[in-house]
Amino acid sequence: MKTKVTAALFLSALLSLAFGQSCFDLLPTYMDVGGVSNEGIVFGPIEYEGTFYLWNPDTGKVTNIGGFSGGSRAQCSADGNYIAGATYTEFPSPQGQRHRGLEMARYNISTGVWTPLGFLGQGSSFATAISSDGNTVGGYAIGVNCDAVAWNESEGIINLGIAANQYTAVCDISHDGSVIVGIQFVDNRIRSAVWRKNPAGGYFPAEPILLNLVEGPDDPNYILGNALAVSGDGVWIGGIGDEETSEQPWIWSEATGGILLGSLCDTYNTPCVNGIDFHGNKVIGVFQLPNNAPGVPFIWTQENGMQNLNDYATQTLGVDLLGTTLTGVNAISDNGKYIAGIAYDPNSGGERAFRLQIGDTSTPEDVLLSAILSLSRVYPNPFTEDAKIECRLKEASQVKLSIYNQRGQLVKQLVSEGKMAGTHTANWDGRDAKGRKVSSGIYFVRLIAGKESSQKKLIYMAE
Questions:
Q1: HEC string for the chain
Q2: Nearest to 393 by CA among 425, 426, 424, 415
Q3: Cα 395 to chain center, whole Å?
Q4: Residues 412, 144: Cα–Cα separation, whole Å
Q5: Which domains, from first to last, does the chain contain?
Q6: Which of 153, 253, 389, 424 is the least buried, fewest Cβ under 10 Å from its Cβ?
Q7: Please, where are the H alpha helices in 243-397?
């Protein structure tokens, strides 16, 4: 799709050359933006299921780097050196012949080479996500089922599928590959899924993300919708809002449970979080509107809550959007410096990819976690013999520290007494209130002080 170079774009290019990278850039062509690096390089396919392109902010040029998107956007590593995608390859058929299909792959900008990563059975595989360090790639493979898959150099391709006849797929990966988020079917509905790295190799089975961490784990109405994004540190997860979240996009952490971000418009179809920076400082997403109307992109921060991205750019940042209207935001860099998405440009009469440089803000944890208490550390995690639980109180309070299982049942109360302000440590040896060893699995440690509470997940692995 060709677009004419407008006077505004020409002026922006001159300013960029004269003074370095500008705060707002319109790319020379439409791209279905999927990734932006810490240095502001933008990646994505130009057409649905097309090859991948990258936009270099230093030269202003768009380069075709090949590969095949398979209908997914390109995610990139934080340094911009690796991209997740797919390449054509040959597969064995049941009749012993071979047929041509797609295989998930990773592109290395330094070498200019796409490396195929593998597939399951006889179907195609697609890469839809890559960790910020570039060492873990995730996606899905098509065989008897559609199975979520991950890949790393030491283990190769890993099947994350959780059950027969179950649809799963990967949407995003934390910086070091320790947390993978995506989707799974629960009661014939697409819901959230999170896979956590198993120290023994591979990943633990998918877990649903619960709106409330303690109550209702067996009720699908407590399971949050599609998980589309995870912060680089693996703490914050975000996704699509539905009736369970009052049609609001959400973020989630082990300490807070689900946090509803609000809304910007009266009528919309799909509110979703598309990206979170490394520490959860900034959350970006979009409200899709009915009848194929342009979307309403948003940014959520502690300082300003949820804002229309157009207002945030022009009023909070004071950025000139060059006459365009931002209609979608798809990616945020790991360092939170850049976001990229789609804008409507009336000068060209069509959509254009954009890149916006944004400022620093505070982390949601600063405002969402209690000022009175916090569970600062649980270590080692996973553990086999004894876990140390470190909590911090900013004032004297009556404290309860308890262990719960995934059904919300009390396993053991570790502390129930008054504590002075400061840091306190308790131990849990993997035994219940009757002194019996519990089974391997996921548990929650919950700290309550007055009306405030904080919670973290821990994994016990019986010897």
A1: CCCCCCHHHHHHHHHHHHHCCCCEEECCCCCCCCEECCCCCEEEECCCCCCEEEEECCCCEEEEEECECCCCCCCECCCCCEEEEEEEEEEECCCCCEEEEEEEEEEECCCCEEEEEECCCCCCEEEEEECCCCCEEEEEEECCCEEEEEEECCCEEEECCCCCCCCEEEEEECCCCCEEEEEEEECCEEEEEEEEECCCCCECCCECCECCCCCCCCCHHHECCCEEEECCCCCCEEEECCHHHCCCCEEEECCCEEEECCCCCCCCCEEEEEEECCCCCCEEEEEECHHHCCCEEEEEECCCEEEEHHHHHHHHCCCCCCCCEEEEEEEECCCCCEEEEEEEECCCCEEEEEEEECCCCCCHHHHHCCCCEEEEEEECCCECCCEEEEEEECCCEEEEEEEECCCCCEEEEEEEEEECCEEEEEEECCECCCCCECCCEEEEEEEEECCEEEEEEEEECCC
A2: 424
A3: 35
A4: 43
A5: 7-365 (2.130.10.10), 370-460 (2.60.40.4070)
A6: 153
A7: 309-311, 364-368
What is the C-alpha separation between 116 and 86, in angstroms, rounded? 7
Q: Residue type for 438, please?
A: V
pLDDT in tens, 61-86: 999 999 988 667 768 999 899 999 99
Other C-beta atoms lying within 10 Å of the C-beta of residue 420: 9
Q: How far is CA 133 from CA 145, 152, 175, 336, 394, in A?
A: 29, 11, 6, 15, 36
Residue pLDDT, tens place only, 427-440: 999 999 999 999 98
Alpha helices in 345-456 (DSSP H): 364-368
Measured distance CA(93)–CA(456) in Å, rounded = 47
Integer Cα distance of 433 and 412 in angstroms:
5
Res 220: pLDDT:
55
pTM listed for this prediction: 0.74
Question: How many Å apart are CA 258 and CA 364, to the nearest integer?
Answer: 12
The answer, yes or no, to whether residue 11 has pLDDT greater than 50, is: no
Cα separation, 74 vs 37, in Å, equals 11
